[in-house]
Amino acid sequence: MSAxxxxxxxxxxxxxxxxxxxxxxxxRGDGWALVAVDLDDERLGAVHELGAGDVVACAADVSTEAxxxxxxxxxxxxxxxxxxxxxxxGLGTAGPLETQPMDEFDRVLGVNLRGVVLGVRAAAPxxxxxxxxxxxxxxxxxxxxxxxxxxYNASKGGVLNFAxxxxxxxxxxxxxxxxxxxxxxxxxxxxQPLEQLAPDLYEEMRSHVPLARFGEPxxxxxxxxxxxSDDASFVTGIALPVDGGITASTGMMRPGST
Length: 258
Ligand code: NAD
Hints:
Blueprint lengths: L8 E5 L4 H12 L3 E6 L16 E5 L5 H15 L4 E4 L14 H29 L2 E5 L12 H22 L4 E7 L9 H6 L1 H8 L10 H12 L10 E4 L16
Parallel strand pairs: 1-2, 1-4, 2-3, 4-5, 5-6, 6-7
Helix pairs in contact: 1-7, 2-3, 3-4
Bound molecules: nicotinamide-adenine-dinucleotide.
The site of nicotinamide-adenine-dinucleotide has 29 residues, from helix 1, strand 2 and helix 3.
């Protein structure tokens, strides 16, 4: 942001942990004011260190209309504007296609897809006023399938195509909508248990990454910050892989295997 420019305001969902927390830190470093959204005050503990006057912690469930409305209202009440919505909150899950309970399907789709739809709908009027933008944290698991991850794959595939249609519908008002598609990212609530409890699977996933490592939350945050910034002013409707090169591969062979 250039010196003297009006301070911009973003809301970040799932801001208490992992990619959302890294994004909150990155945007604060870039000079944004923030509404940091997560399920409860305990999960939002880490955002308080980001600067009380410039950060509103908002406990809200993004799978509800009321939660999203409250988050946008918090931005307007405290800062008078909203320039960016980072719709990042999400849940992972895995299980057998034929027997995984449909309640689990509803729970995950409720956050990963419905939550994002509600977030865009709630933020759209304020973003129209500021000619702001949305960044959705999808996944490379929305572009392709994974074993036993049909629920997550469906949720992320759905949200990716929603991002494209929202980009078209809001583009005429100058509002951009983009998605990032992370590959395996370390040190998040989603992958930390894997690293600790299933090291063989963690290593198997790492072995499929051309850059030969998990990514870091900061590396996704950097892509999100770029998409929100004026440097991406003619970029809308994209699904940007931040995946160490996984989606460059057909999947037939592991990198380095021949
Ligand atoms: P994380 O568990 O560290 O963070 C997710 C945050 O979302 C948590 O703080 C959680 O409390 C919050 N959240 C969950 N449900 C919510 C709800 N209903 N309302 C408000 N907040 C809610 O995991 P992460 O890896 O940082 O995940 C962030 C996003 O990145 C997710 O959408 C995830 O699907 C996506 N992603 C992660 C990876 C990875 O390897 N970590 C890869 C691809 C995509």
